[in-house]
From TrEMBL:
Name of the protein in question: MarR family transcriptional regulator
Classification via PANTHER family: TRANSCRIPTIONAL REGULATOR SLYA (PTHR33164:SF64), TRANSCRIPTIONAL REGULATOR, MARR FAMILY (PTHR33164)
Transmembrane segments: none
Pfam families for the chain: MarR_2 (PF12802)
Top-level taxonomy: Bacteria, Bacillati, Actinomycetota, Actinomycetes, Micromonosporales
Domain HTH marR-type positions: 8-140
Superkingdom of this protein's organism: Bacteria
This protein's UniProt keywords: DNA-binding, Transcription, Transcription regulation
Length: 154
């Protein structure tokens, strides 16, 4: 990388490494329940109870629409998610957590949080605030808070 501490390459490398390590840890926690980190991202996004258009879920979960459709089909088959036509725009489909999906999300959220605390990952929001600030600076269009979408905030 660079000889200068704090160089963009160092930031990219550090963020990439942290994301990979966190994803690996989450995958290990979720494996017992036969869920992927992608499925976890979808459950976390839908946990707010508002229902989200599939296009938004695709963007927030960083999944192409076809891949998301297959994943949501699997979550529907497991009775964790359901889809409905958007009442305001009948051309759109919105996804929601089922009652079982809400219970499973809450249970898994507790397991993930406990695992991260056991690993020494701080529960304070300072890092999340810094990342949210970085995201806001890099994404001035103002897409939704990615830390919240990833289920890292309550």
């Amino acid at each position: 990388m660079s000889d200068m501490p704090g160089a963009p390459a160092d930031l990219l490398r550090s963020l990439t490494r942290a994301e990979r390590l966190l994803s690996r840890r989450l995958a290990a926690v979720l494996a017992d329940d036969d869920l992927t980190t992608e499925a976890w991202r979808v459950l976390c996004l839908l946990a707010d109870g508002l229902g989200h258009p599939m296009s938004e879920v695709s963007a927030e979960a960083s999944l192409p629409p076809g891949t998301l459709t297959k994943l949501v089909d699997q979550l529907v088959d497991r009775n964790l998610v359901f889809r409905r036509i958007d009442p305001l725009d009948r051309r759109r489909i919105r996804a929601y957590l089922t009652a079982r999906g809400r219970r499973e999300h809450a249970r898994l959220d507790e397991r993930v949080r406990t695992n991260l605390l056991e690993a020494g990952v701080p529960a304070d929001t300072a890092l999340l605030d810094h990342l949210a600030d970085l995201i806001a600076r890099l994404d001035p269009a103002g897409r939704r808070d990615h830390a919240e979408a990833a289920g890292l905030r309550r």
